[in-house]
Amino acid sequence: MNKKFVLGIYDDEDVLLHAIENIRAAGTKIYEVFSPYPIHGIDDVLGIKRSRLPIVAFFGGLTGMSFALWMQIWMLGFDWPMIIGGKPHISLPAFIPVTFELTVLFSAFSMVIAFFIVSNLKPSLRVNMLDKRSTDDKFVMAIEVKDGVTDLSALNELLRSNGAVEVNEKEVVK
Amino acid sequence: MQHVSPIREPLVTGGKTYHDITEDVCRQVEAKPNPRWAAAFAISLVGLAIFFYSVYRTLWFGIGEWGLNKTVGWAWDITNFVWWVGIGHAGTLISAVLLLFRQKWRSSINRAAEAMTIFAVICAAMFPVLHMGRPWLAYWVLPLPNTFGSLWVNFNSPLLWDVFAISTYFSVSLVFWYIGLIPDFATIRDRATGPIARRAYSVLSMGWTGSAKAWSRYETVSLILAGVATPLVLSVHTIVSMDFATSVIPGWHTTIFPPYFVAGAIFSGFAMVLTLMIITRKVFHLEDYITIEHVESMNKVIITTGSIVGVAYTTEFFIAWYSGVAYEQYAFLNRAFGPYWWAYWSMMTCNVITPQLFWFRSIRRSLTATFIISIFVNIGMWFERFVIIVTSLHRDYLPSSWAMFSPTMIDVGIYVGTFGLFFTLFFLFVKFFPVVNMAEVKAILKSSSEVTHTSADTMHGTEKELNTNTHTHHRHE
Lengths: 174, 477
Prior knowledge:
The structure holds 2 protein chains of 2 kinds.
Chain A: E1 3-10, H1 13-25, E2 32-34, H2 42-46, H3 53-79, H4 92-118, E3 139-145, H5 152-161, E4 166-172
Antiparallel strand pairs in A: 1-3, 1-4, 2-3
Chain B: H1 18-30, H2 35-61, H3 76-100, H4 110-131, H5 158-191, H6 195-205, H7 212-245, H8 257-283, H9 292-323, H10 326-337, H11 341-353, H12 361-364, H13 367-394, H14 409-432, H15 438-448, H16 450-454, H17 463-476
């Protein structure tokens, strides 16, 4: 199915932020905003909820910690107990470094893998950019066009009056 | 938006726009190799050849090719290992700790510093692996079942902690670095003209579009990764220092080692970052992004950590005397006045005295002086590890087994060879990867560039002003 977008091109982050506020206030739904760098404050004006990735990191870390403790206690305490340096078989203080490292490892990797999955990031040869300049110096606001519903000239006017330097239409072939 | 005090120096000079940043950084990726780069890369390849030859000798004839003897069983290899790992730490400090402290000057140097971390850790890892003598059995350090012929690994041993620390450090740093690279790869992908470049950077950029949602997650991930990488970097050098501190060798068995090693690591790492950055900014004309202000900030870190290291040296000496232990006292007197006095005093001069010159603002802001002092610090920190390792071992409890250590050409070859390895990787990085984090520099451009420092804050203007803006932009199209 093809999707049609109207793209408002901006060249300043503050103009963009004001435009997002005004356009949303006017009742127009913004499909997505593309920018060359993370803009502070855009989450609030676009209504993006805080990412839950830190929760993944926390539980990943918890898993790593439990795994590391279980591994060391089981291996040296139960599977093949040996006296090392006259210390107890299960000498917890000596297990802290490996436990810490595996906590960090699991936490970082679980979060990053979750990030790749939820953001749909995977090696691919073809990327559909609505406007390629949005990885360089332009900020692109995409508004989905519904045939027969959207008033294109009014939308054009709304974007331009809110500081868009350019307004384009683009059709994306799915 | 974010407030920046007017007395702060701009972090991006030369009146750059967003597009200028893209152009300036992508230039060396897209252009044909510059002759200076090609010459430097060729020299690194010679170094790499030396590395392979020395490794071949070590593997074919065994560790006997090195200068080790029964008294000094650890020498250049572990010295080089600790030295390279320490160098790596500055990269994580810049990318993680300074991110948590919201130090914006990190933005233009973090990419190269993190690359340095990764390559330095690769070089470091060569030494313990080669020292195993049979590196093809290196996987035995992993906790593998008994059917492999050994018992479970000894989780009480700091050497095993090192395995976990270094491998975690390497993989987390690599991931952190790669996450930061994704948006910049997307920038290069969208500019690429050749089919190979477009495909390669498409794959590398993993389909990044720069949507607001993705950026929001990206920022969360960066923050959490910085949060876990900060204690990680401290743990790594702490554990490296425990390789020594948990033993019962005089001069090693001290509780001061972890903080002292961490400070030393940051110290040497920043010196290496400066050495590399001063060259990189010159060769690739990045003077507007890596400014004197950046150099000065790093020099301040050097003087701080250099002073901590100086205090640590003095404390060690004091504690040796105060402990009343004859062996400990002898170990330290032997360090300063024994047969390796020259190594000790080289260390003292390079690490404690030279960085103190940075109290002078003119020296802190002089590129030539900074470059020379950064080399001094690198040399001094190498001697520090040499002094700690060799002087503590060569005269042990039994005078009949006292010995001296002198390196063979293979020892020298492996060390020089790791420079070849390091610079080969580094030069490939500067050629094919964006050497400055474009997205992050663009993000600080409005608050920290020269232009915004001078022009008034017009962005909160009325709608009328916005309309005039729109018209002026139309003219360009």
